[in-house]
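**Protein record**
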Amino acid sequence: MNINSPRIPRLTPQFKKCIVALVAVLPLVTPAARSLAYQDTSAVKPVTSDTPEAHLGKGYDALKQDRYDAAASEFRAALEIDPKLTLRARFPLAVALFELHKSDEARHELEVVRREVGDHPNILYYLGRLDLDERNFKGAIRNLTQAAAKPPFPDTAYYLGYAYFKQGDLTSAEKWLKVAAEANPRDARMQYQLGSVYRKQGREQEAQKAVAMSEELRQRDTNESRIKLECAQKLDQGPREEALAVCEQLYDPDNAEKLTALGTTYGQHGELERALKSLSRAAELAPQSPQMQYNLAYAHYQLNQLEEARAPLANAIQRWPDLFPLNALYGAVLLKLGQDRPAYDALRHARQLNPQDPATADLLHMAEIYIALGRPVQAKAEQTKADGLSKAPGKVQ
C-alpha cells in the first residue's frame, strides 16, 4: 500500500453554503473534548455504519452533493442515537430541510437550535430567509438585521435589502443593497436589484446604469467560464507556455473562489507549484473555510511538504472535527510524519465518519501495525522504498 498518494476524498471547488453555515455555528472543540471521541483506542473495535459519527459523515457528504433528502435522513438517524447532537446534527438537518423547501419543519428545527445556542447569525439568516419565502417581510427584516450585524454570508445584506424593497421601504432597500454590492462586487444580482429600486424611485438614469452593470457582470462570468474551459484544454494539449498564458488570466489575488478553481485546474494537470500559489492565497482570503484549508494542505501533501500540510489541517480539525476529508488527509499526513498514535486517532475518527472508504481502512490498518511494532527501522525503510516506487501525483481539489 502506498501512503504517499492515498485516495484522499476531495471537497468540491464551490464549497456549499450549508456546510459553511454548519461549521460556522459549531464551537471550537477543546483537546479534552476531542480526547473523549478517541477513548479506548488501545483495543481495536469494529467500525459500523450505525453510529452517530457515521451518520454525521454521510450527512455532511450528502449536503455538499446537494442530496438533501439523504442528508436529512442521516442527521435524523444521528439524532435518534444521540438526541443531544444539537449543533452537529440538528442544525444541518434544519439546513437540509430549508433546501428541500420544507419550511415548517426547517423552522421547527432552527427554533430548537436557537433555544440552545441563542441568536447566532447563521440561525437568524435562515430564519430570515424562511420569513422571506413566507412573505413575512417584517419578520425577515427583524431576523436579517440581527444577522447583518455579523453577516454569516456575503448575501445577507442582499436579502435584507430585498425584504425592505418588498415592504416598500425604498430608502432602506437602497442602503442595504449598496452594502451588498460592496461585499459582492462581482454578483450581478446586486446591481440588478438596485436598478429595480432606482426605477421605483423614478431615478431612471441610475436604474439603467445599474442594469447595464448587471449585464456586464453576467457577461464577465460567461467569459471567465470560457477561459476556464480553454485553460483546461490547453493544459491537456500543450504547449505549456501557451496554456499558462491563458490560465493566468484567471488569477485574481482578491477572489478566493477563482483562485480555488485555478488551483484545482493546475493541480489536476500536474502544475503543483502553480496550484500551491493559487490555493495558498485562497486560504489566506478565506481562513474560515474548511475547503480552502483542505486544498492548501493537500497541495503541500502532494509536494511532500508534510509539516506545511499538517499545520492548516491541525487548525481545521479543531474547528471542524466531523468532516471526513479533513480527518482522512490529516491521518495520512501524520502517518508519513511518523506520528503513529495521532495518525491512528485521526484515521479511526475518519473511519467512523465513513466506514465504507477503503483507502482510510488501509491507512488505519497501517497505523495499527506501526503502533503494534513500534515502527521498527526496517519496516520504515521498506515502506519508504515502496513509497518511492509507487509515488504518483494526485489531483488538487
